[in-house]
Amino acid sequence: MSVQITIIGLGQVGSSIGLALAGQKDVKRVGHDKDYDIARQAQKLGAVDEVRINLPSSVSDAQVIILSLPLSEIHDTIGYIAQDVREGTVILDTAPAKGKVAAWIGELIQPGRYYVGLAPAAGAEYLHGIELGVNSARADLFKNGLFLVNAPQGTPSGALELANNLVSRLGANVMFTDDVEADGLLASTHLLPQLAGAALVDATVNQPGWREARRLAARPYAAVTAAMTYHDEPKSLGDAALANGANAVRVLDEYIASLKDLRERIAGSDSAGVTEFLEDAAKARDRWLNERFRADWQAAEQPAQSSETLGDRLSRFFTGNLFSRDNKKK
What's the Cα-to-Cα distance from 111 to each of 82, 108, 201, 322, rounded to whole Å? Predict the structure, then answer.
């Protein structure tokens, strides 16, 4: 049985998923992007086997749908395809607001279709990459990275197993969570760096002296402010912050408290205190970076490897009884 995986949104993430799934037996990769030139480029790169211009047509025969879209586009996309998603289909997404997407799926998609959220983190080799878009897609983008995987209560365990096996084919590890925990983690690691970058720009470009200072703004400034452009368009970043508002406010408060601590040490001419603050931060960053490259997380569950192909597994899922009422997520 050939299984169709439809990837909607063929930027860096969507196309990298497609590239990582290339050559899988009995898997047909169908792609759609609102920009047809991007879709054709993804096909040229080998990220998808076929491009469908018509969005409903791209999902009508799919057993797996991956929404690799900015958050601002997901609600309308779900509504547009809702009537064409076949029973038993598993819908995955890569957006940074899991509770909101789960609510939209519950609101717009008919029963008998299943949602599993994915929050991907690229492998350490690509941590410092600044390239975005389809031409920056890589088959090994997620190698030794980590995916948070969450699903609503009542989701069949087969849907979670499918997501686990899909992630393993991308070379990544899985950490199962729920949407509440996922949104809390994403607020710290995804939202906060981007919001902090935006705040830095706001705090500098509107100040007297920027006309001269802009000529000196170099690597440190570029590195910190680059985060605000990572995948999320301004509207999508704002939507993600509002959709995950309580967590966004919490992490911003924590960040402000840390800045105030540093400010007070500097204002008090506390040389030892400033040095201690910066040394602790540098050590913590080095420790995190080393752990990231080792990718040996105690909290992560290493996906089991098998000689069975992804196509074989997907076929078994959709022809077997893994989605029966007796096999639900408790």
Answer: 11, 10, 45, 16
> Phi and psi dihedrals of 53, rounded to 5?
-75, -40
Is 221 found in the same domain as 76? no
The answer to whether the pTM exceeds 0.85 is yes
DSSP for 58-81, written as a single string: HHTT-SEEEE---HHHHHHHHHHH
- Dist. CA 279–CA 259, nearest whole Å: 15
Size (the chain), residues? 330
Query: Are 196 and 260 in the same domain?
Result: yes
Let me know if residue 324 belongs to a domain: no
- For 13-39, how does the pLDDT look when each residue is reduced to its tens digit (9 = 90+)? 999 999 999 988 889 999 999 999 999
Contact predicate 145/122, CB 8 Å: yes
- Looking at the structure, tell me whether residues 83 and 169 fall in a common domain: yes
Torsion sign across C-alpha atoms 89, 90, 95, 97: positive
Buried b (16+ CB within 10 A) or exposed e, 251-264: bbeebeeeeeeeee
Domains: count for the chain:
2
Range of the domain at 160: 3-178+300-319
